């Protein structure tokens, strides 16, 4: 048997299986005229389903649904056709597995911030489904495919298109889907609405956060009984925010009619992260009359919402893009979405599969090179934002009079940290614009990267970072210069004046030396406050710990080229946002002891 065959404009690789089902399989394929354009091919044996009239209806429905959907968070149907023996569906190929495999790889759960990013993407896909009156009925981690960090809803075999009224009206349909994630109404074979998908989404979101679903059962009936009898509970570990618990409480309501609606879900604070919401909040900040407080509040709001960039750059860029005419396109125009009901002949014309394999190997190698470089630049970007986040902690605690220290030290520290961050950002921009020659990656790899969409997204992301960060830095610079001029005769301040400017020089060794000595001075002064601090002691200790990290951030954060979702940063914040006061104190004392030992 041949290892490939031609179906219309596609080549199907029959020996490269991606999945197997009762009535067929999913294999790899590619375009005949573009061997680098890979697809996933769903092959259904017509002989096996000949007596399964219901299954044939489901297949037709899946094709009809995918035909009219074109969204970056929904797997795309390129083409569908049938031959004498088989039905073929040529689907978008997602190279990075699915959420189920990601959970297995990551120990069963994700940090909250990362889980929320995936959840937002999936909800973006559901906005499109809801708009088209489609219910999925089989949402689970295995049906969320991943490609370059982007989530794609797949497997519409159990999906159903309803009229507009049917999306919210009660329906009774066949018992379909995966029992563990099924709504109780479907499990009980009762009437239900499109909110059955909200239940399944809630079950999956809970699993992303806690590593298990809130209810289990050996059989569907046992699962239903457990849902009926046991209230929704949240484990103490890992700690999760009240906002995600609120979302889950509203999604996992037993009665369909009392469950959160789709419109309410899309407006929830977790999901409603768009340009309209950001513009409204920034307008409120503009009412602040103090220029420093205004720039600090704007900077803080930006950093808190884009603390880690990984899987959803486009969404984050567009949310904070003040130029509404220049939003990044989220929906890509597909190729051929048409479905052919014609009988076509299966062809086995000679193809040099070794040559095809080499082309695809080179394509994968190029993709890996692009993602590796993008991962590195994104890592450096997230590192800069960590420094900014630390500055925001210092500013807030000083404003609240928790950090009671000399005013000159306060201005020196926030100036130094903000300048340090901008030096890093400017260097990244200069490298990306070829104003500074980068030496980290081979020239050919870099050439491939700057022609990619990942390059465009990351460049726009860092430019936007600078747009929000720089006004704060400039305001801090003016305030610091004005205040420090009053005491410029002090030897320490005289030295500081040598770097008190807006020059962003990556190779300024004097700046780095003054940065580290001032950071240590700040740490020593802040730690003296700990014994007598009663209010916000934990926040003070966390601030001191983060300032320690700013002295040498590469000791804490290490770039991993395969980490395209910035999981290390997500996990870091997940851990430190939930450390106890005692745990933070122990770490700070240990860090101080190390500093003393290194002096000897």
UniProtKB/TrEMBL annotation:
Residues 12-271 form the Protein kinase domain. Transmembrane segments: none annotated. It comes from the Eukaryota. GO terms for biological process: autophagosome assembly; regulation of autophagy. Gene3D superfamilies: Transferase(Phosphotransferase) domain 1 (1.10.510.10). One of its GO terms (molecular function) is ATP binding. GO terms for cellular component: autophagosome; cytosol; membrane; phagophore assembly site. It comes from Tetrahymena thermophila (strain SB210). Keywords: ATP-binding, Kinase, Nucleotide-binding, Transferase. This is Dual-specificity kinase domain protein. ATP binds at residue 42. The keyword ATP-binding applies. InterPro entries: Atg1-like, Kinase-like_dom_sf, Prot_kinase_dom, Protein_kinase_ATP_BS, Ser/Thr_kinase_AS. It holds the Pfam family Pkinase.
């Amino acid at each position: 048997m041949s290892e490939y065959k031609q179906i219309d404009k596609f080549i199907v690789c029959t020996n490269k299986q991606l999945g197997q089902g009762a009535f067929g399989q999913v294999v790899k394929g590619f375009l005949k005229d573009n061997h680098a354009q890979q697809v996933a091919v769903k092959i259904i044996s017509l002989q096996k389903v000949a007596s399964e009239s219901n299954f044939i209806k489901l297949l037709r429905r899946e094709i009809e649904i995918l035909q009219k959907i074109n969204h970056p968070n929904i797997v795309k149907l390129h083409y569908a056709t049938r031959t004498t023996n088989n039905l073929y569906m040529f689907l978008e190929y997602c190279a990075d597995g699915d959420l189920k495999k990601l959970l297995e790889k990551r120990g069963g759960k994700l940090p909250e911030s990362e889980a929320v990013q995936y959840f937002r993407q999936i909800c973006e896909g559901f906005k499109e489904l809801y708009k088209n009156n489609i219910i999925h009925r089989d949402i689970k981690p295995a049906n969320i495919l991943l490609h370059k960090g982007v989530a794609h809803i797949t497997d519409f075999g159990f999906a159903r298109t309803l009229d507009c009224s049917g999306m919210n009206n009660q329906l009774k349909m066949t018992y379909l889907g995966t029992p563990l994630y099924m709504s109780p109404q479907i499990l009980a074979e009762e009437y239900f609405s499109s909110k059955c998908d909200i239940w399944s989404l809630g079950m999956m979101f809970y699993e992303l956060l806690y590593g298990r679903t809130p209810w289990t059962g050996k059989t569907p009936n046992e699962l239903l009984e457990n849902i009926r009898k046991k209230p929704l509970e949240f484990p103490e570990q890992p700690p999760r925010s009240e906002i995600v618990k609120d979302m889950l409480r509203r999604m996992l309501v037993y009665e369909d009619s009392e469950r959160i609606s789709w419109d309410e879900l899309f407006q929830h604070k977790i999901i409603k992260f768009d340009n309209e919401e950001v513009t409204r909040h920034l307008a409120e900040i503009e009412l602040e009359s103090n220029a420093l407080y205004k720039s600090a509040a704007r900077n803080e709001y930006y950093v808190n919402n884009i603390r880690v960039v990984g899987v959803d750059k486009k969404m984050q860029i567009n949310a904070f893009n003040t130029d509404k005419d220049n939003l990044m396109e989220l929906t890509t125009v597909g190729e051929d979405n048409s479905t052919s009901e014609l009988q076509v002949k299966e062809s086995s014309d000679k193809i040099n599969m070794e040559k095809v394999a080499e082309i695809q190997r080179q394509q994968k190698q190029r993709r890996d090179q692009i993602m590796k470089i993008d991962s590195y630049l994104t890592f450096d970007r997230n590192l800069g934002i960590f420094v900014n986040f630390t500055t925001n902690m210092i500013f807030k605690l000083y404003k609240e009079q928790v950090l009671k220290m000399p005013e000159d030290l306060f201005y020196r520290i926030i100036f130094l940290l903000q300048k340090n961050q901008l030096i890093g950002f400017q260097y990244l921009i200069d490298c990306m614009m070829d104003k500074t020659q980068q030496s980290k990656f081979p020239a050919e790899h870099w050439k491939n990267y700057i022609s990619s969409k990942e390059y465009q997204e990351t460049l726009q992301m860092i430019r936007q970072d600078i747009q929000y960060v720089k006004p704060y830095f400039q305001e801090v610079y003016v305030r610091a210069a004005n205040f420090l001029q009053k005491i410029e005769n002090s030897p320490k301040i005289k030295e500081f004046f040598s770097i008190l400017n807006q020059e962003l020089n990556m190779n300024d060794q004097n700046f780095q030396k003054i940065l580290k000595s001032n950071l240590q001075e700040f740490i020593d002064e802040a730690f003296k406050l700990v014994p007598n601090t009663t209010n916000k002691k934990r926040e003070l200790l966390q601030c001191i710990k983060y300032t320690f990290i700013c002295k040498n951030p590469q000791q804490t954060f290490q770039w991993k080229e395969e980490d395209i979702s910035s999981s290390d940063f997500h996990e870091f914040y997940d851990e430190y946002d939930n450390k106890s006061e005692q745990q933070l104190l122990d770490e700070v004392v240990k860090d101080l002891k190390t500093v003393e030992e290194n002096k000897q």
